[in-house]
Amino acid sequence: MKKIFLLIFFALVIFLGINIISKFHKAYQQIVVNTENKNLIDAALKNNKPFGILLLGDQGWEGGANANNGPYLTDSILLVYVNPRIKSVTLISIPRDLWVKIPTSGWDGDYWKINAAYELGMDDKGYPQKLTQFKGSTDPGNLAKYMVSAVTGLPVDRFVAVDFSGFTKAIDFLGGVDINVQTTFDDYEYPIAGKEADPCGHSEADIKTFVATASADMQLLQYFPCRYEHIHFAAGIQHMDGATALKYVRSRHSIQDPTDFGRARRQRALLEAVKNKIISFGFIPKILPFVSTVKNNVSTDLAWDEMTTLVANANTLKDYQIHDLALTDQNILMDSFSQDGQAVLIPRAGFGQWDSVHNFVEASVSAALKLLTPTPKK
Fold this sequence. Notes:
The protein is an alpha+beta fold. The chain contains 14 helices and 14 strands. The protein has helices spanning 6-16, 21-28, 40-46, 117-122, 142-152, 164-173, 204-211, 220-223, 242-250, 260-281, 287-294, 304-312, 314-317, 354-372, and strands at 51-58, 74-83, 88-93, 99-105, 108-113, 158-163, 177-181, 185-191, 228-233, 236-240, 298-300, 321-326, 333-337, 343-347. The chain is globular and about 65 Å long.
């Protein structure tokens, strides 16, 4: 996953400001991949123009990725849509199994789950026919930004990507967080990092025979028990270190809360917990060592000038209202299957009918606008 949560700390800088700006500059430059000189954030704030920042969470090479599980597949995809005119922020959760056509050969390409967009964008060698703007050498987040914009109909201007290791380091740097667990759940199939290919005592010939069986995918836990661990979370306030918090937001196989939509809810609970911890932690003097801690696990195209713009507007931005919006099978999406048998999500209006999703998102954002717009006095 990835974690998406570096933006929490960016938000801290935005909301509270920092006194060590020149020293922070040098550390910050180590995570920036921005190749533009234009300060989009400054222009958007001055002209009351909406802008979007895409948060991505990936495994990274330290997250146990292997040949069958790419290191930059994004388990978490969250669009932060900022509307300066009405002083609002909408957090839009995008399910990773959304089935989309990704332009890996000019404007043409193949269908993938949307969580592959970031990794495909980075892979210039494997996909040399990508348009220049979608090459990783230009900006590794551009292809993912394009796909999320195509799905939501909203502008996506910048991205922040954090991997598993960066996520756990960030939470541990804070001394852990207190999370309000809404639902007690157990997951007996949580993958153990580094054990993805462990034979668990089986011979290579036995494994080949097992994999060839029709029910192999349904019996992985029974056949490879050493690859998984049992995790349990009880309802109520729970203190979690980085490793535990990562398990909390990654879990996908519990009986009580198994879906990606449940994971998105847990991520928002973690976001709230981190915000509360930062307020009480005295984080500002520690921003420089924090960036040094996670610099190898974070990538963003938020330019330094854009960060300083956000700091300069801290007093205004801290008053913005925050709203949640998730694209799920309970509103605008439905379950389906790809031609090769993968379980995917598509618009309820039909395969490739993204206009219906655009209309849904626009209506949801407009509803927030109406709530925030004062009623004229008669």
